[in-house]
Amino acid sequence: MQGTKIRLLAGGLLMMATAGYVQADALQPDPAWQQGTLSNGLQWQVLTTPQRPSDRVEIRLLVNTGSLAESTQQSGYSHAIPSYCANAKRWP
Question: What Gene3D superfamilies has UniProt attached to this entry (predicted)?
Answer without folding.
Answer: Metalloenzyme, LuxS/M16 peptidase-like (3.30.830.10)
